Structure prediction request, 599 residues.
Amino acid sequence: MPIYRAPVDDYRFVLHELLELEKQSDLPQFSDLSQELIDDILAGAAKFCEEVLQPLNQSGDEEGCHFENGVVRTPTGFKEAYEAYCRAGWGGLGAPAEFGGSNMPMALSMAVNEMATSANQSFAMYPGLTGAAASALIATGAPWMKEHLVPKLISGEWAGTMCLTEPGCGTDLRLMKTRAVEQPDGTYRMNGTKIFISGGDQDLTDNIIHMVIAKIPDADGHIRDDLSTVNFFMVPKFLVGEDGKMGARNGVATGGIEKKMGIKAQATCVLNFDDAVAWRLGPKPTPGEKRSASAGMAGMFGMMNTARLGVGMQGIAIGEVAAQNGLAYAHERRAGEALGGSAEPDKPADLLIVHPDVKRMLLHCRAFVEGARAMAMWTTLNMSIAHSSRPEAATAGLLADLMTPVIKAFFTDMGFEAANLAMQCYGGHGYIRDNGVEQFVRDGRINLLYEGANGVQAMDLVGRKLGRKGGAAPIALFGLISGWLGENDDATFAKPVKRGLDALQQATMWLAQHGPANPNDAGAAAADYLRLMGIVVVGWMWARMAKLAQAKLAANPPNAQFYKDKLVSAKYWMERMIPECPMLLERISAGSATIMEFG
Ligand SMILES: Cc1cc2nc3c(=O)[nH]c(=O)nc-3n(C[C@H](O)[C@H](O)[C@H](O)COP(=O)(O)OP(=O)(O)OC[C@H]3O[C@@H](n4cnc5c(N)ncnc54)[C@H](O)[C@@H]3O)c2cc1C
Prediction:
């Protein structure tokens, strides 16, 4: 049976010692935050995830979801676990108090998201999407929706989904066919098919609020092939009156559930909208208004950005749980002898953990997971600062924006790599279902694909985020890292971080010079550039954490091993990941000519 121990000590290190969360009391949501409160939340979430969600992970994968007579049933035990999740209030941890939430900072809701995903990714996605739908309704919904629908989403009594994808349209939303036509009473009637909708139907909640994008036809009834008439809608499974009362079934039917490689306990649904009653979100666009000017669409993009950060956390989560299992196995299984001579001569063979190659694989996972966790938490803090009145609010917003595609794509790539390496530590036994580690590979694979495939994240970084506002975001990032290096030039890992930063700056310059003249150069460089930025920012996090760990070790603390382990992981990142930076720069600067000859 696979194991899982939530990384509470690591979260305490990142939140208290690295980011000093409790000292940020001027930020909204931070005023009542104490170290004790943070620790209680982390410990409570850890216990719930370890004791309630993790035991259902393997059985949920084996049983999967069922679809019979148009009804979806989640695996045995999911309903009870969901009720316990809602009773404990986990779904509303980060939601505003006025809607029944606990108003805690995003850092904590993302930390709980990571733990729940490690324990049971399929389960964690049901409440995860509900939280995203609630935030979108708070941003764009009519007052009656905020009064009656949002509290039900936050309590978990109802669930939410995000419906973008169609059979002919995933990345390219221009190809969307779903249409919504306005009615005399101001509501819309929606027709079309959405596919791959996570939690599109389930037996956990009484109602589901679908957050849907669809096109509004022109006056002649035609829908355009561009994005200009795309709008954002709220479509409940069961109709809801403006008094919040639930009525008859709406015209949304579940066409089926997908048979998938992983996350089998998560219902991925085909939803057919057949004259479904829909409410358009945000103020009515004026004729000719572009989508970017629509508050409704802004709400949808806000929902997607939060969801992208959430998917990045899924990458960390899968890496964490897989690595824990790989390490436990390496301390159990015996094969071969240590290269310098047997470590336990009285035993028939040594433990796997003596072998440098096994250590390499597991340390790779550890250095990624803990470095990525620090970077993700630093980004959530920037998001909180962006919503404050601090003078650096605008810069913090730009940095969070810049990091979002990097977190989504780099962390899910690396999380999948970590799951594969953990499985490799098991040898052939890793391929056998009963041992449980192959589930992490299958579950973690989706994270690279949904919420915008990783290649598209790289295009977003290079094509949009870098150049926005005259390059203000990369300039701010480089300034921050250079500033730290200037103040800490004697830090143990200042030199490798500087090497990585130099490569990143040169790559940015190369893109600025070549991208506008030849967009294929930017497209061909995008994935390598995103990885380069991820390696450098995580490297900077490791340099900061190492400095902290050294200071702590000087005081001879009782948990000295924790800090010694941090130094080993930091060193690994500098020795084994930073050297990729000049190589990535060389690949980026090779341009697109060869690649464009293919196909
Ligand atoms: C299990 C599961 C759950 C999902 N949950 C949801 C959900 O809840 N809601 C929802 O709306 N959708 C959901 N999706 C859909 C998912 O978000 C899409 O599959 C994804 O966005 C990619 O779209 P696509 O499959 O149409 O791929 P395509 O758009 O056909 O892309 C195929 C490949 O081409 C690349 N590509 C495409 N366009 C470009 C470009 N311009 N530049 C560079 N590369 C490009 C992509 O990166 C990708 O690698 C889910 C999918 C799965 C499998």
In short: The CA atoms of residues 154 and 270 lie 25 Å apart. The chain has a mean pLDDT of 96. The pocket of flavin-adenine dinucleotide is lined by residues 162-165, 170-172, 196-198, 260, 268, 446, 449-453, 455-456, 459 (CB under 6 Å).
